[in-house]
Amino acid sequence: MSGQWEGTFRDADGRAWFTVVNVDSDRPSTGRMLMADQERPEIWQHATLGIVVEGSGALRAEVEFSDYPLRFPGDEKEHAETAGILPGRMLGEIIPDAFRTTLASNGPARTNGVIEALRIDRQVEDVSTPGDLLSWQDFRSWIQGLPSGSNSPWIFRGQRNSAWRLASHFHRHPAGRRDVIRFAQEDLPHLQSAIGKATGRGYRFNVREEYESLLSIAQHHGYPTPLLDWTESPHVAAYFALPHREAAKTEHWRIYAFNATKFLEYAMSEWGALEVPLLYLYTVRASRRDNLRAKAQQSVFMLSNVADIEGFVVRYERIGLPLLLKFDLPADDAPQAREDLRELSITESSLFPSDSNCPGCAEVCAALKQRFFTAVQ
After folding, report:
1. Using an 8 Å Cβ cutoff, are 65 and 45 in contact?
2. Pair (97, 160) in one structural domain
3. The model's pTM
């Protein structure tokens, strides 16, 4: 049952709810179910699961509806229907990539019905689909035709192997975690305390700049977060894509381009990805408070509660909204690309300045990572 699942809950009144179920591999006996009304997504439901999977494909889970951990604007009368604790039970069938269960509780109609869901997170062995084959010179020519600076709609990401899928460190870590609300409730308070002591600053969750600064520091010091690193600079992305020691292991290195402006205009809501009861992602310019590396790398973060980002973006592309470009460059072009980037002063020393604003952050992030992200054996 471990993984990320998405489907539909049709309640006893025939009302349809978008439904996401997250089960962490390191806690396979529990999970979290999030639901949002398909007609009014600001109306949500939240439940925790105690999961028992029995033989012959049977799935049984104890369900406990409770208040959503975070509050959103919406119809308070609707939310009040499931205020407090409402117990229930799920019983149905499960196969490796799908399940169908009935949900029964002693609560209102919206807590009774049928759930059908598919597993949507990718397995470790899954690879990204091929991108457009370009030479390094062709890619530089494409760059020259783009608007510059804040006028550009694109952000960029480089990866040393074109087969790697887009996934945050949080979602690709072998510990197999999927529940970002658990991350917000358990991990972030410890990061807040430890990084605050290292920097001598406070990081309030209800102040967006400070909240994003905390995530930024954790991300740049090796702690698995639901952030995915991007940059405003295609040249910086190219640097991170250069194969270096892995040149013999891959035929191509990859640069992604994501149209953040178009995504913002069409798909982004006012809520952050950690906070909505739907699969979601959004992009923010990385906070450079206490983070010299974010400034040097012209960092942009994609905050995601989605394990399969490429699959999520494809949904929008199917309705004619091209958002993601993938450029695969040959390994043989890496030496010339490295030389060209050096002439632009894009080097390891320029992109990784001494982190004097955050002494000790690497150590505290490493210690907390060991505590909360022990891989499941």
Report:
1. yes
2. no
3. 0.88
